[in-house]
Amino acid sequence: MPPTRSDDKVGDTTVTVPRPGRLSRAWQSDIAWSFRHSPVAIVAAIVFFTLVFAALAAPLIAPHTPFDPATLNLMDGFTPPMGEGLGSGSLYWLGTDDQGRDVFSTILYGMRLSLMIGLAAVGFAAVLGVSLGLIAGYAGGWVDALIMRIADIQLTFPSILVALLIFGVARGLLPPESREQMAVWVLILSIGLSEWVQFARTVRSSAMVEAKKDYVQAARLVGRRPVAILFRHLLPNVMGPVLVIGTIYLALAIITEATLSFLGVGAPPTSPSLGTLINIGQDYLFSGEWWILLFPSLTLLALALSVNLLGDWLRDVLNPKLR
Amino acid sequence: MADTAYKTADDTLSMAGQALARSDTGDVLVEVRGLTRRFDVSSAWLNRVVRREGKRILTAVDEVEFDVRRGETYALVGESGSGKSTIAKMVVGLLEPSAGRVRIDGTDPARAERAAMRALRRRIQMIFQDPYASLNPRWRVADIIGEPIRMFDLARGDAVGKRVGELLEQVGLSAGDATKYPHEFSGGQRQRIGIARALASEPELIVCDEPTSALDVSVQAQVLNLMRDLQRDLGLTYLFITHDLSVVRYMADTIGVLYLGRLVESASRETLFTRPAHPYTRMLLDAAPRLDGFGRVHATDGGEVPDPIDPPSGCHYHPRCAFRTERCEREYPPKRLVGGSEVACFEAERVVARVE
Amino acid sequence: MNATIGNEATGNTDDDVLLQVQDLVVEIPTRHGTLRPVDGVGFTIRRGEILGVVGESGAGKSITGAAIIGLLDRPAHIAGGSVTLAGTRIDGLSERELQRVRGARIGTVFQDPSTSLDPLKSIGDQLAETALAHLPISRGEARERALQALIDVGIPAAAERLDAWPHQFSGGMRQRVVIALALIAEPELVIADEPTTALDVSVQAQVLTLLRRLCTERGVGVMLVTHDMGVIAETTDRVAVLYAGRVAEIGPTRRVLTDAAHPYTRGLMGSTPDTSPARDIGDRLVQIPGAMPGLTAIPVGCAFHPRCPSAMSICAMREPPVTVLGDTAVRCWLHEDL
Q1: Nearest residue of A to residue B186, measured between CA atoms
Q2: Is CB count within 10 Å lower at the N or C end of chain A?
């Protein structure tokens, strides 16, 4: 066994930068410190996680089931907040809409749907965008040019229009019976397809930088296939900005879904989302039943805003230049 | 000037190293013939059409030929634009030559088929210049060094971790470092990890691309000494790329001097440093700062390396050369043997004579 | 902290002293505590003299240079000591006053010529503007001086190249222009931070020779910061060796390099490979174990003691004071009468 030739050894370990335990590291890390010192981030996080928790717990905490027509009482319609329904006598915290649906419960279930669709859409966009970005950045040449031109073309269309287009096409292709069921999947697909570009672009520029680094050459030297290099070597190093973009696009996805539902081409009426509620509510705003519009709108606002603010904070904290 | 107050690594390994040493010392391991590489650096097609420009071709490497013997260190020396890094990449197969070929123990990396290439890959490895870019920052050291071991199926399961530990010890770190991440190490330590990774596949040839240029002097000494020790113990062959003549003097057995993609002189270390035969080599030797050169006046040629895209005609060095004749401007001098060097210069005899 | 290092007895009159740095301390408050990249650095530079400041990365040499001209990045700041230029203190000056000092009294040459020159202005304009800003001359005179400056630094066909853009020059030529820019307002001191590290070795020799010639001709003092001992040997008159923010040794270059008093300097000399024919080919390079300590982990006592082959027990306890040995000064317990 050859003698050791080290000069930086103390006993059995090499002298390197000291590393405390994992949890302690996480707590003391720059990110955690920044979070604790940023009131905006803390408030946004509280709001967001409260809403998420409420949405997840909807089946447990919602006092009514608004999408089951059997439970609805038409006479309860237009009950104001904290009022009792004329038909059933139940207390409606935030009132009811034109069909007697409890606004509070509908908001909870609607948020659930919105979040589900939003997260799935962003997830889909991220997977698609990151993959294409990696390929474009690593391969270069005509592959890169092709992918980027497709991305550019897509960017010239506003995302709502793209989503509408895909939605319309999908609807036309599907037989009418499955339209209701497939509505959610089509929504996810269309919103996701309208959002992948930003992921692709950001990942592509990081990938281009990383691909030139020597550790990639070293991997090629031992015979790694390109796919393995992309996903095992490059991917971990380009993921940083993806998280930031993800949060911001989550907010956008939620709003896009709300818009589509508002336009009547989104969530089906049997499982209404926040957008559907807003759509219904706007008809009655000036006839006095303001609560049908206000509460869903406020919820949507809170959701989107908190996600956005968290994304902003995350971007600032992860930006190495501001450190 | 070795200061005896400092410990130098003990020599008990010489015997073992010699025992390990190759019985076939001296035969050619790497053969490079007519190696050429061109890059198309033209502007985009549309821009060229609009501006009525032609294509621009950069000849980074031009008909380079040399041999590397088993067990020796062959240094390729050059300044910017010399093509040395491009040659390194072609030798290991990361880049394809535009013309000419590389043969490593008979196999050509640019033309080998799968199985032969895989076998060859195991035998050649590379050490890179930038210790901060040569290790994947998101991987643990154990995975970084383990990757070649796994790729070449040299060990499985627990044996991999054991082997990683051995390699770390061999380069002067400790086995416990395997769980750490690169950012926890200093530049010199990272280079050691890079060396451990290169050793993981038990190669015969290691191409070293400026391995110490980014390191402080005292750390450089550690790494260079380590590399020499490893060569002696493991019978390695080095192709050492650098711009630093003083490092070359310490490490190399044979040296090739590159200028604008061409090999202008090739000689043993002794010959090159005492009786250089090419004017460029002479100039390089004179320009290199010396630790005892107090107030030294340099015999500079007043010039700089020209743009490699549009090199001078004939012998590329002629505009800066003190020995040039009219012929040097027209023709490219062929390689010939003058005073112990293989040199591409019409006036090599005069150059050698000038040196006392 | 300790006695001033750098005022070693030389017998020169005070008139000759151009720059005097005494006990300079630079601190950077961070959330991990206050870091001290420069901790009691002192040296003098005389007119027409080139002082080399050598050290490895992390020694604090660049920060020292930045502190002298007031170019420290916030939140780094001078926390102690003084910087005196030709008798006047410049370390406490306001930004406005510092701007007048820079250029007119202190010129700078940095490592990267491509960021030192404005890519959007011709070099003639940049030279002329700098001259105008600091000298009481007319536009026409400024342009003439710009042309003369280019000729002085050896740019061929200077008249035609006066209106050329920086990107049209090669690396070595650009660095010559940067030197011209540093000298055009007739400063008394030039701070050159790794001026040739990014250049090929053949150009390095030319640029250093030029710098040396111009400065000694004009009586300009030079602070040459570098990590390259060979450059120090060939270009400087005196040298200060920095380690972990302190001056380990300072003295005439020839003496310090051939007969170093500090173990670190001896180690550096032994670990530097050399092309000089006097050095035996194949001598094993001396290895200094370990590496320069990071700013958060500077050892107690002498900062070098964990790596020092001659360390004694006192070295781990107290920082050594400055010992003057003739024309050199060193910070090492080995030379201190205990």
Answers
A1: A16
A2: N
Output the average pLDDT for chain A: 81
Angle CA B311–B313–B314, to nearest 5: 125
Chain segment A97-128, per-residue pLDDT in tens: 777 778 888 888 888 888 888 899 999 999 99
ipTM exceeding 0.95, yes/no: no
Regarding predicted confidence, which is higher, B141 or B114?
B141
Nearest residue to B59 via CA among B79, B43, B76, B36: B36
Give the domain range for residue A183: 43-322
Please report residues of A whose CB lies closer than 8 A to that of B18. Answer: none
**Would you give the DSSP letter of residue B243?**
S
Please tell me chain C's helix, strand, coil percentages from 3-state DSSP, rounded to the nearest 5: 35, 25, 40
Which member of C275, C286, C310 has the closest CB to residue B273? Answer: C275
Question: For residue B48, with 0-12 CB atoms within 10 Å meaning exposed, 13-18 middle and 19 or more buried, which class applies?
Answer: middle
Task: CATH number of the domain at A136, please.
Answer: 1.10.3720.10
Across the interface, of C31, C289, C294, the residue whose CB is closest to A8 is C289
Q: Residue B74 forms beta bridges with which residues?
A: B239, B254
Can you spell out the DSSP letters for C228-275? Answer: -HHHHHHH-SEEEEEETTEEEEEEEHHHHHHS-SSHHHHHHHHHS---
Which residue in the block uniquely carries the two structure tokens 């319609």? A77
Q: If we measure between CA atoms, which residue out of B177, B150, B186, B146 comes closest to residue B164?
A: B146
- Quick one: which of B30, B31, B96 has its CA closest to B60? B96
What domains does chain B contain, in order, with CATH numbers? Answer: 72-97+108-252 (3.40.50.300), 265-291+298-356 (no CATH)
CA nearest to C183, candidates C229, C134, C137, C141: C134
The string of pLDDT tens digits covering residues B172-224 is 999 999 999 998 898 899 999 999 999 999 999 999 999 999 898 989 999 99
CB B52 within 8 A of CB B231: no
Rg (CA), chain C: 21
Task: Output the CA torsion A232→A236→A238→A240 (10° steps).
Answer: 170
Best A5, A7, A30, A35 member to test C by mutation, with max C CBs in 10 Å, is: A7
For residues B48 and B43, what is the distance between their CA atoms, to the nearest angstrom? 6
Q: Report in angstroms the alpha-carbon separations of C107 from A76, B78, C19, C103, C143.
A: 84, 33, 13, 5, 19
The distance of C249 to chain A (nearest Cα, Å) reads 24
Read off the pTM. 0.84
DSSP A134-169: HHHHHH-HHHHHHHHHHHHHHHHS-HHHHHHHHHHH
User: Measured between alpha carbons, how far is C101 from C91 in angstroms, rounded to an integer?
Assistant: 11
